[in-house]
Design goal:
With 353 residues, the protein is mainly alpha-helical. The protein contains 14 helices and 2 strands, in the order ααααααααβαβααααα. 52% of the residues lie in helices and 2% in strands. A two-stranded antiparallel sheet has the order 1-2. It starts with a helix and ends with a helix. Bound molecules: protoporphyrin IX containing FE. It holds the Pfam family peroxidase. Its EC number is 1.11.1.7. Keywords: Calcium, Disulfide bond, Glycoprotein, Heme, Hydrogen peroxide, Iron, Metal-binding, Oxidoreductase, Peroxidase, Secreted, Signal.
Amino acid sequence: MARVKSFTFLLLVQALLISPLLCVLEAHASAPLSKGLSRKFYQSTCPKVESIIRKHLKKVFKRDIDQAAGLLRLHFHDCFVQGCDASVLLDGSASGPSEQQAPPNLSLRKRAFEIVNDLRELVHSECGRVVSCSDIVAIAARDSVYLSGGPEYGVPLGRRDGLNFATQNATLANLPPPSSNTTVLLNALAQKNLDATDVVALSGGHTIGISHCTSFTDRLYPTQDPTLDQTLADDLKTICPTTNSTNTTVLDIRTPNIFDNKYYVNLMNRQGLFVSDQDLYMDARTKDIVTNFAVNESLFFEKFVVAMTKMGQLSVLTGTQGEIRANCSVRNSDNIYLVSVVDEDLETKSELR
Ligand code: HEM
């Protein structure tokens, strides 16, 4: 009898612990995917793509965990401007300066671009030119989150790379500045079908990484932002003695390199670095979401995955649209190496005829 009772108790514990988990997993699995994307897209053409990327990034982050933040931000900047098409990776051309040269992208880490090209080389040498740069960026962003302590999740794959980069104006118009208040953020992200929960969850990306002084010194000088904690303001004034200081500081003062929910605890203590962060706690429409994420990390993780999955599918190119770049920084038609390989191929074929 005692055995039956303890067995029933075990079942109850299991049901309580496991069923909410299953609901979360089901919710992710059933989130609608854009046409042409699938979590198993490379199952037959490049089954090892995700393990190759994970293995390499583990090595990179072991040496320098800061790179995780650079890769996560790169995916955000790719998706918000012209969709997740790796256009942010393209070098400038005769047609004009690249997206990379637009002001919000100047602080993207150069190393992040190099890591993506290294990953592309590893993946293409295993499978050939079948995996897009935009998918590599999306997988690398997921791995950056996971390997810094955040949630694991499946990334819908099958994106293709864009043929053109966006103009400087389009880049500026699509990436809200850090001085944005919640109204500006909600309106900007609503245009991309992202709701208030998505906005608060995605801003949680600021749980890792750094910022340059110039992104927030308007909160210190000439007058101090009253929503900024005094001790943090004093520290920031030491780090950034002038408005144009080139110094940097961490985004999350509690756990700067760990992907956790401490960013929201910071906001509740007036320790958000940007207006766009701190105002999420000051605005009645988003305050409760911040509080809920600060007290419940699993809830933050769950909503972050939902929002990242939505962001990762913004205006994606699929099927026969775009191309699979042979070099993430150059479109194939401008790729001298690729053009000469194709020419050689054609020459060899005509010689054989
Ligand atoms: C919602 C509006 C957002 C604004 C206004 C914003 C603004 C900024 C700014 C100004 C920086 C610092 C740049 C610098 O001075 O070096 C930054 C860094 C960063 N952002 Fe955002 N961001 C936003 C959304 C996001 C999203 C959606 C993510 C990812 C999910 C994200 C991830 C990051 C990361 C990881 C860093 C640190 C990068 C590094 O250390 O290299 N941000 N953001």
